Amino acid sequence: MIDTYVLNPKVTKTVGVTEWIKQRIDWQIYLSNQRVPSVRKLAKLLNISSFTVTQAYEQLVATNILLAKPGSGYYVREQATVERTVETKSKTPVIDTRWLVNQMFSEIPRHQAPGAGVLPNDWIRNDKMEWAIRQVTAQADSFVYDYGDIKGYLPLRQQLVQHLDTLGMHTSIDNVVTTAGVSQAVTLVAQLLLQSGDTVIVDNPGWFWLSSCLQQLGFKVIAVERDHLGPDIEQMQQLFAAHRPKLYLTNSVLHNPTSYNLHPARAHQVLKLIHEYDAYIFEDDLYAAFVPDGQALRYASLDQFERVFYATGFSKSMSSGWRVGMLVCPDRFIEDMLRVKTLSNMTTPEFGERVIHKLWTQGEYRRQLKKVQQNLYEAHQNLRQSLPSIGIVYPKQTQAGMFVWVDTGQDTAQLALDAYKDKWLVAPGQLFNPSVKESTYLRLNVATTSNKFLEWLGYYLDRNV
Q1: What is the C-alpha to C-alpha distance for residues 305 and 267, in angstroms, rounded to an integer?
Q2: What are phi and psi of 215, to 5 degrees?
């Protein structure tokens, strides 16, 4: 083979050099442990600067293609080869939390995913996002080399305290800890309050990830039936008496998967039980941004953080990728919570917290939320009219959140498998019950449930009567 000393003109010279070297490794011109041309020699052969070759070689070292030996040069790194047997036999998927999560992170387009847990990107896209990132990048040298505050970025915590005050929840910045999303807040509170084998209560139906996470951590998860008023208080009384749970985890506002809110009388009854049995509430308020003016009843607004751990975040309303959440703790647990966070992951990345703060304090975010709230309202109106035409009742107590919880009259686990074969991702009801019992319910994301899917669903239900 005649070697050529010409770089790809369609890329930068540095990238061209890395391509040139990797290509010759692939052709076995340069073998494992063999020395590649020196910086000076290759620069002369390719008629480029030594600086460019050095940059390219350093990139190849960083990506484990080359090995740098001081005083000797650069060598082709020996690549480890791993032989493994790949199971090619097709298996029937098992409908569980892992299955749904895997599909949510798959390449299924959002418009074919009525079971998705997020809004379409164009609904939440913020025109100020790149601006905020540039602003924080310009300041990065002043903070990026340090761990940062264990409690989290101070201005972001101050902003949350001010926001909560407008909603009737009063706390201080010392009670606020930033987390890597609400999901990390769940695990931090669980580590703080519970020991393996302890019992916790969740809603049925409730957030599918929550039950699976708690079970994996070694806790006994029991469920209380949840309707448009809140948890079934008689059943909850019985569960407390029989199992003495230490923690109740719930959405009180725009509950997932029902989009129900909480009735004042029921909230007072729950708090009475919590005090009576010396338990605590973890209140997940992730969907708060979708309530016009934020005006909805929360346990924290009644309890004022005496027995309520309150968590919120931005993964639904701003960006899932930043993984920025915030946790408000009762006074007596602040120091212990900081200890748990420190031993879990030290601090949370300040860069993302700064970006979120920039966006949260800009008028563009508030304007965007109003559009989202209007879009959600219109999507619910569409389903209110469309669902009866395929024999499904739209629950009249549903609020204008992300989801609607509907009864199909058929086993939705099988429906989910059949839908997946036709390239639809749906969220079957059994996943929202910690016992994974057979269910006829389906959680629909109102933003991604298209008329085309409703046509498919109507045909499927008629065909399988």
Answers
A1: 14
A2: -65, -40
Whole-angstrom Cα distance, residue 64 to residue 67?
7
Which residues does 245 contact at the CB level (< 8 Å), separation at least 6?
A: 198, 199, 200, 201, 222, 239, 277, 279
Separation of alpha carbons 350 and 140, rounded Å: 10
Cβ(409)–Cβ(382) below 8 Å: no
Nearest Cα residue to 164 out of 281, 37, 328? 328
Tokens 């309303």 belong to which residue?
317
User: pLDDT per residue over 441-462, tens digit each?
Assistant: 999 999 999 999 999 999 999 9
State both tokens at 217.
């951590």
Q: Which residue has the tokens 């041309």?
A: 37
Query: Which residue, 400, 403, 411, 395, is CA-closest to 465?
Result: 411
List residues bridging with 404 in a β-sheet: 444
Residue 373 amino acid letter: Q
| C-alpha to C-alpha distance for 259 and 256, rounded to whole angstroms | 6
For CA atoms 64, 70, 72, 73, the dihedral sign is: positive
Q: How many residues does the chain have?
A: 465
Q: pLDDT digit string (tens) for 325-361?
A: 999 999 999 999 999 999 988 899 999 999 999 999 9
Q: Which two tokens stand for residue 309?
A: 């751990």
- Contact criterion met (CB below 8 Å) for 458 and 424: no
**What is the pTM assigned to this prediction?**
0.83
